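User: Before I run my own analysis I want an independent prediction to cross-check against. Here's the chain; please return only the structure tokens and, at the end, one sentence I can use as a sanity check.
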Amino acid sequence: MEKKESKKISKKELLEKMSKDYGMTGFEASKAFDAVFNTVATELENGNEVSIKGFGSFKLNDIKSRTAVNPFNGKKIHVKAHKRVVFKVSSVLKEKVK
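Assistant: Structure tokens:
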């Protein structure tokens, strides 16, 4: 089986595909798209994990403060504790894109 060359798809292209595939106007597709991703972001901000069956889950990981080395000058720097968004792909999606 020959591997297809992958292409980076923009938000605009996703919205055009949603409009075409689901019989929506561009405005409706944009509103739906923004609603989903804004809701995911809000839930993450509130400390919640977001799980989408058949797709995957988003959650926040706490990253501890640490000392790192600046690769350009070799000086030690302090990196503050922070949160990182993590996405874990579902087994269904993993199998689909295999």
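Sanity check: Residues 36 and 76 are 41 Å apart (CA to CA).
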